[in-house]
Amino acid sequence: MSVSLVRSAIVLGTLSMVGPFAIDMYLPAMPAIATDLGVGETAVQATITSYFIAFGIAQLIYGPWADQSGRKLPIFVGVGIFLIASIGAAMAGTVTELTAWRFLQGLGGAVLMVVPRAIIRDMHTGAEATRLMAMIMLVISVSPMLAPLAGSGILAFSGWRAIFAVIAVAALISLTMTATLLPETLPAERRTRANLRTMLKGARTLLTDPGFMSLTFIGAFGMASFFVFLASASFVYMNQFSLSPTGFSLAFAVNAAGFFTASQFAGPLAGRIGLAKTIRLGTGVFAGFTLALLVISLLGGATLPIVIGFLLLGNAGLGLVIPTTMVMALEDHGELAGLASSLGGTLQMLTGGVMIVAASPFFNGTATPMVAAIALCGAIAFGLTVISLRRQQAVAG
Prior knowledge:
mainly alpha, 18 helices
């Protein structure tokens, strides 16, 4: 494996994990935030929903902008907004203020979802791009592994506001890395002028492409399941199963480990059996284990080890799906890589936000509603995969 590939993975992975840090690090503090600000579980979950919605919408801006100006300038602006919002969140006096700052955080952090994926497409395609995407996810994996533990440690000594101060420091590090280590991968001669007409034409091309749309929503429902888990896991693990913030962080890390460990096999597996079969295998594993967990939960057998174990295995299937769908969706749209990345990301984030809003009224601090929402996402992702592959086979025939 080339040194340049490893270096790219480290730099892009470090940049890409800033956004997840803004979510994962404060998860152990969500019950404490609810108590401190005098609100209920749903109000605190709204701070996650607002982040995801803003994160999704902003991607429509960063993608075309990155196609026009190059990849680095949008990163500087977006991370700067993220930095200001992180400081504001640390000083929020009400849950409404915190939700607003989180929205602004999402507006800035979205750049680190769109532009790194476009940079990957600038440099590689096919199995090589999948391998780089998987390596980036390996770097990102320190976020769900270590960020909740770091958050629980900060919570024990300084309170939840200090968590956002640490996130602001991470934003400063990102700005420094962008300035010193990240090359510009889109030369001037390959840049396209961003205007409404061009955007609408490109969006129409993508939205009417059945392959792009099906792959996008397969990934969207996969990611939505993880968003549901993010919004509800701290309340389930800490209320129903009486875990401490540190205990929750460890349980969360185990569940996330399944996803990121399996993602490392996505590239080699795609090179051996093909991208489409890798997605089918991943969605099958994801749907199978989450639906089985739902049945167990409805029968009253959802103990803590069972919930953690089945989510670990289900998320392993998801680890094959997310990087592969990202790469395959962009495969035929190199000339629209920025717009395709931003539109796909927007649809995925909005799907996640909608799922949280739809499921929130059913959340009651127990595992069953959370598991039901995750299993529903798994079933939809698998159904879309079957339909998509059947369509591909019909076209090929």
